[in-house]
Description:
The chain is an alpha/beta fold. It has a single domain (about 20-350), classed as L-arginine/glycine Amidinotransferase, Chain A, CATH 3.75.10.10. Helix content is about 30%, strand content about 20%. The protein contains twelve helices and 16 strands. A four-stranded mixed sheet has the order 3-2-1-16. Strands 4-5-6 form a three-stranded mixed sheet, covered by helices on one side. It has a three-stranded mixed sheet with strand order 7-8-9, with helices on both faces. Strand 11, helix 9 (about 245-255) and strand 12 form a beta-alpha-beta unit. The longest helix is centred in the first third of the chain and has 16 residues, at about 35-50. The two termini are about 25 Å apart. The model has no long low-confidence stretch (mean pLDDT about 95).
Amino acid sequence: xxxxxxxxxxxxxxxxxxxxxxxxxxxxxxxxxxxxxxxxxxxxxxxxxxxxxxxxxxxxxxxxxxxxxxxxxxxxxxxxxxxxxxxxxxxxxxxxxxxxxxxxxxxxxxxxxxxxxxxxxxxxxxxxxxxxxxxxxxxxxxxxxxxxxxxxxxxxxxxxxxxxxxxxxxxxxxxxxxxxxxxxxxxxxxxxxxxxxxxxxxxxxxxxxxxxxxxxxxxxxxxxxxxxxxxxxxxxxxxxxxxxxxxxxxxxxxxxxxxxxxxxxxxxxxxxxxxxxxxxxxxxxxxxxxxxxxxxxxxxxxxxxxxxxxxxxxxxxxxxxxxxxxxxxxxxxxxxxxxxxxxxxxxxxxxxxxx
Length: 355
């Protein structure tokens, strides 16, 4: 029996969490030299904002790393018990992509079976950054830790490549899910069937290309996100000469023509792209980074918003304050973080049913 047949569906991110999964930065290939220390400070700021709202489950690759984290916590006035440490092997920080994707059975609310783990394959975005076996093992580890039922779809899928409204509609991109570096043996129809059977989706909306400099091949969480069941926020680049202009306009047109599972159009709101060109290049040679306000994270009572560009940062904060009036909206400077080609949503993964 598949999760959907058993009554499970992936919740929207705004559904109350039991915690958030993070993996502490330690890979010098992602942030070489002094950049690693700068990113550690971003993590400290993020955890300081997050821990009062929900349990933070933090992966560290060694007892020595745990001691390093506690030292940084002390420097940033974060209590030593602000996180729940998991000392397990880790390759990198991208918990959104290698972490478990949880599903919920509303009919079993309040029971130990309310939530279950789906454990998809992770191959580091088409084998770009080996090794990745330790990260790929994290969902199985958390299944054992939590005792939650686990489903193992035979498909590569990253959490950053999907976005759901919690009511059976999912946004994805062709540039990722149809890329031959993930599941060359599966057709588009078969991929949709996996998403429906294991994540309880009823309708898949396909967008096209992603951002320049996005080494994931174009994750949806840098492009378009649900603000509620009927409202989609999507990024635009108004300058026709912007490297992302054409792709974002094409995605906007698709969204304007899209409907939900009941055939109703969505409300579409837009935010301008911040500056994405950097001085020099990233570790993989790109002169662009996927800096996007769409890479926000919704936690219990909190929305964490990445900040990059003083021209547009306040506009982004105001939009999230409008759509999430019952949550504190906190901006975090992510210019150092996104140099590693990911931001707040990429490093977080919401958890359910895990204390």
